[in-house]
């Protein structure tokens, strides 16, 4: 599985979601502008959607096992 390039694409998407989440939580802790925090969380939702789609596509293409 780790020799599959698509696996690395999925892992990058998952790590991007985690990074955006941590950035957003850090913003809440620092007390930044609520509009900016809301935009960061909207970006997280979009990235999370993309990551889930990529994960499902990866599983589907690899036979679902």
TrEMBL record:
It comes from the Bacteria. Residues 1-65 form the HIG1 domain. Keywords: Membrane, Transmembrane, Transmembrane helix. Pfam families: HIG_1_N. The keyword Transmembrane helix applies. The chain crosses the membrane at residues 6-29, 41-61. This is HIG1 domain-containing protein.
